[in-house]
Amino acid sequence: MNFTGAKANGSNLDTYSPNEIVMTKSSSSAVRAQPGSISGEGFADVWKAS
Asked: Are strands 7-8 and 43-47 parallel, antiparallel or unpaired?
Protein backbone atom coordinates (compact mmCIF):
# COMPACT_ATOMS: atom_id res chain seq x y z
CA MET A 1 0.00 0.00 0.00
CA ASN A 2 1.44 3.38 -0.95
CA PHE A 3 0.72 6.60 0.89
CA THR A 4 1.33 9.92 -0.88
CA GLY A 5 0.75 13.53 0.11
CA ALA A 6 1.13 12.68 3.81
CA LYS A 7 2.10 15.59 6.06
CA ALA A 8 2.42 16.24 9.79
CA ASN A 9 1.76 19.76 11.03
CA GLY A 10 1.97 20.97 7.42
CA SER A 11 5.49 19.56 6.83
CA ASN A 12 6.78 16.54 4.92
CA LEU A 13 7.07 13.44 7.07
CA ASP A 14 10.81 13.03 6.49
CA THR A 15 11.37 16.39 8.21
CA TYR A 16 10.80 14.72 11.59
CA SER A 17 13.05 11.63 11.24
CA PRO A 18 10.22 9.33 12.38
CA ASN A 19 10.76 5.88 13.85
CA GLU A 20 9.67 2.74 12.01
CA ILE A 21 6.82 0.78 13.59
CA VAL A 22 6.67 -2.89 12.60
CA MET A 23 3.41 -4.65 13.45
CA THR A 24 3.74 -8.27 14.59
CA LYS A 25 1.39 -11.07 15.52
CA SER A 26 1.41 -11.33 19.32
CA SER A 27 1.34 -15.13 19.49
CA SER A 28 4.34 -15.73 17.22
CA SER A 29 6.09 -12.38 16.62
CA ALA A 30 5.54 -12.92 12.88
CA VAL A 31 5.69 -9.63 10.98
CA ARG A 32 2.23 -8.54 9.80
CA ALA A 33 3.05 -5.04 8.48
CA GLN A 34 6.45 -3.75 7.38
CA PRO A 35 6.78 -0.05 6.51
CA GLY A 36 9.17 1.21 3.87
CA SER A 37 11.34 4.30 4.12
CA ILE A 38 9.77 7.76 4.03
CA SER A 39 10.63 10.04 1.16
CA GLY A 40 9.18 13.55 1.31
CA GLU A 41 5.40 13.12 1.56
CA GLY A 42 5.23 9.41 0.79
CA PHE A 43 5.91 5.95 2.09
CA ALA A 44 4.81 2.37 1.51
CA ASP A 45 3.59 -0.29 3.90
CA VAL A 46 3.55 -4.01 3.10
CA TRP A 47 0.74 -5.93 4.80
CA LYS A 48 1.08 -9.71 4.99
CA ALA A 49 -1.93 -12.01 4.92
CA SER A 50 -2.57 -14.50 7.72
From this structure: unpaired
Dist CA 6 CA 24 (whole Å): 24
Q: What three-state secondary structure class fits 15?
A: helix
Count of helix runs (H) and strand runs (E) in the chain: 0, 6
- Model confidence pLDDT, tens digit, residues 5-46: 989 999 998 898 888 888 888 888 888 888 888 888 888 888
Q: What is the pLDDT at residue 47?
A: 84
Q: How many CA atoms lie within 13 A of 16 on its CB side?
A: 12
- Distance, in Å, from the CA atom of 37 to the CA atom of 32, rounded to the nearest integer, reads 17
